[in-house]
Amino acid sequence: MTESHEPAPERDPVPGSDAGPPGSDARGAQPVSVSGSWAGRSPEAGPPDAADADGVPVPADVPGPPVRRFWSVRRIPAAVLAAVLLGGAGLLLYDVAAVRADHTAMAWRRSLANDLASRPMDDDWVLAGAAVAVVLGVWLLLLALTPGLRAVLPMRRRHPDVRAGLDREAAALALRDRAMEVSGVQSVRVKAGRAKVAVRAVAHFREVDEVRTDLEAVLATGVDELALAHPPAVRLRVARPPRKG
To answer: Going by C-beta distance under 8 Å and a sequence separation of 6 or more, which residues neighbour residue 188?
Structure first.
């Protein structure tokens, strides 16, 4: 009884196995070189500049959610208005109920009704009351239609459920610290607004033009690092210190 040995059939190597030289696949494809910032990154990691602070890849071409200003709660005006309306409505309702119960109306309501029926429209008191009502109405409309919180600057949003804001004083302090690092700057005053940042610097031992150029570059970088949704423009003034005597 004899045994015959047949050669085992050749199998294709599994893609992704260790067969073949480094840098090429198992089917004999040409090696692919990876250079630059993509070296050492997996294909699923995305571009190197498309990851947020948490390390979660974010596509660079996907626009972020719209950024709007923060709205003020305005608890004090709302509480004052609610208290006034509640007191006036309660007093008027009590007087109407008293009249329905065959009691005499309050003196202030009888006097007010007589004055409104007898006074002409061009009377000074009528005009003054109308002006006060118009001013209060315009003030309430402005409170209802404007966001408020002008001291908070909205920041760029990387997540749709997270909103961040930066106080103006904090932004001014950060830019002032960056400006003080420039050589030749003696003192800096920064006033941050929603649209502009006013910077006044005093240079003492370097040329004013050189200090101004360095400050423009440093402040531009500082404004960008604040990550504001609407970066303000920088208005810079550099001067010499006042002479003594």
So the answer is: 176, 179, 180, 199, 200, 201, 202
